[in-house]
Amino acid sequence: MPQSPAQTPPTSVPASGTDVVLRSGSYEAHIASVGASLRSLTLDGRDLVVPFAADEVRPAYRGATLAPWPNRVVDGVYTFAGVTYKLALTDPGRPNALHGLAVWLDFAVVSQSEDAVTLAAVVVPQAGYPWRLRVETTYRLGADGLTQTVVATNESADAAPFGTGPHPYLVAGSAPLDEWSLTLPADQVLEVTDNQLAPIGLAEVAGSDRFDWRSPRVLGDVEIDHAFTGLSRVDGVATVRVVDPSGTGVEMVWDGACPWVQIHTADLPLLSNGGIDPGHRAGLAVEPMTCAPDAFNAPRYDYDAGLLVVEPGSSVSASWRIAGITR
Fold first, then answer.
1. What is the helix (H) or strand (E) element at residue 206, kind and residue range?
2. For 64-119, what is each residue's pLDDT tens digit?
3. How many CB atoms lie within 10 A of CB 14?
4. Which of 40, 42, 115, 31 is nearest to 326 (CA)?
5. Can you list the residues of the chain whose pLDDT is less than 70?
6. Contacts of 289 (CB under 8 A, 6+ apart)
7. pTM of this structure
8. Rounded to whole angstroms, what are the CA distances from 256 to 25, 32, 225, 264, 306?
9. What is the sign, positive or negative, of the torsion defined by CA atoms of 94, 81, 291, 22?
10. How many Å apart are CA 180 and CA 182, to the nearest integer?
């Protein structure tokens, strides 16, 4: 009598990967191993970022670690060291390569304690990016919030182009995003094309209702999906804040390793059935970046796009911190 094929036991790993829980004081964070993603961050039970469920495929890039480039490579094409490369197009509705190659890698836990975890993954040589890059990231909770550090090491024989950044959606409080106040200490904004968000050039934010947030004011119905630079810093640190009318809020701080920050009001298209995506304007994406959008094509622009070049055997790093603001 023929035997039935062996049944594969169901996996116990959630859809978003291994769930790592960190706790320190009134803070709690959940890190998902897929994309080394910040799945949730709370202070006294209050969400500081838009969360997602452990057994859920991460919605787009929410909370992901972006490497070896943040933001987009326009048309997925770039030239480095005299060679032209073509990346897969991954930007829905636009011909761009979006947010790097590490966002769907399952990072392995290297070390873990109650308040910290280090995870690592390797970007292997592939079409469009023929370098081997080890990406290691550490999340650490403390009284001052959650700090993430990314270290990238070039394990190839040739120099590699690189950039990194995070992709959290900050949550100020229970009021809608339209009622939150934003403080963004940036003097310049990167103008982009309407359809592809391809860089055009830098513009001063002074006098712009849409882009000048150097003094705190209410977001209202403004739509932003732009990179900013010319950051003002206090003791070397730039700080972006969003505050709810109730007085609660969240801030994100980082040092000079990230001279750029992408701000996105999470405006999403209608669903196919005409409904509204639950992520629509649910949080404010604040993405410190080591380089500008399309930095892999830095020579074509007349400003410093900040592309990092990592020599064989060398490492580069960047870090940022998210903290709650209480009444």
1. none
2. 999 999 999 999 999 999 999 999 999 988 999 999 999 999 999 999 999 999 99
3. 17
4. 42
5. 1-11
6. 66, 70, 71, 163, 164, 165, 227, 258, 260, 261, 262, 306
7. 0.95
8. 29, 27, 22, 21, 11
9. positive
10. 7
